[in-house]
Amino acid sequence: MVFEYILYFFIYSCAGWCVEVIHATLKRGRFENRGFLNGCLCPIYGIGAVLILLCLTPLNIGVYVLFPASVALASLLEFVVGFVLEKLFKTKWWDYSGEHFNIKGYVCLKYSLLWGIACVLLVDVVHPPLAKLIAKMPNLAVWISCGALVAGIAVDIVFTVIQLAAHQKNYAAVEKICSALKIPSDAVGERISQATTDAEKKLAELKQKIRSSRLFKAFPEQKRRKKNACENMEIDLTEKEE
Question: Which of 29, 50, 158, 233 has the highest CB neighbour number within 10 Å of its CB?
Fold first, then answer.
């Protein structure tokens, strides 16, 4: 049970990191390693997913309760993590100050609602098949995977914290180690970002083809003809009444 949830944490942390890379690419047009750590992980996504699964799944509640509960839990987690990170490292890792109905820039209504939708999809759609797949794994494979992943994130956390808190004289050496740790995640992120850019271009090309097609051009003409026909009909009716 515990080991399975450790795997869930890493899977959803990695999935969250991929989502952040795609979001940054669509918003800024380039790859940005948005993770707090050097690896392909955004722990807040993993923590949030595990928290939702532990607190809400056993209750077997309907979507009308699951959604507001997910919004509340996700918003609370985002606020606490954002506040703690800023106090510890004097850096704001995300800022919703420009969004409507935000609380000190840590949370806002728009993203809280999106987290609620994401959590509903997680509980009802994404997680059930994933849980069945992991349940079929041999116990030894699960233990080895958890051990390797925990060791990897422990090293990453240690050097990330040292990098953020290091004195100037030690910073160069720490920076080299962190840069080395970031090589795999940067490589993966670049591929995801490029795939996102390619998909965006293909979608734009498809839209352009549809707009330039005869069928698409015929719609405004048909609409204009119907409008003229309706106007002529109204004129005829008016003349008859007179």
Answer: 50
Rounded Cα distance between 115 and 121, Å, is 10
Give one DSSP letter per residue of 57-84, joined into a string.
Answer: GGGT--HHHHHHHHHHHHHHHHHHHHHH
Cβ 196 vs Cβ 26: under 8 Å: yes
Task: Determine, yes or no, domain membership for 89.
Answer: yes
Is residue 209 one of the residues assigned to a domain? no
CA 241 – CA 129 distance, rounded (Å): 68
Residue 142, classed as helix, strand or coil, is helix
**In the numeric block, which tokens belong to residue 133?**
């797949």
The per-residue pLDDT for range 88-117, each reduced to its tens digit, is 777 787 889 988 889 999 999 999 999 999
* 106 part of a folded domain: yes
Is pLDDT above 80 for 220?
no
Can you read off the two tokens belonging to residue 189? 């992120």
Q: Decide: pTM greater than 0.85.
A: no
The count of structural domains within the chain is 2
Please tell me whether residues 77 and 186 are part of one structural domain. yes
Answer for the pair 12, 50: CB distance below 8 angstroms, yes or no.
yes
Q: What is the mean pLDDT of residues 125-133?
A: 93
Q: How far apart are CA 125 and CA 119, in angstroms?
A: 10
Burial class for 228, CB neighbours closer than 10 Å (0-12, 13-18, 19+): exposed
Span 199-214, average pLDDT: 81
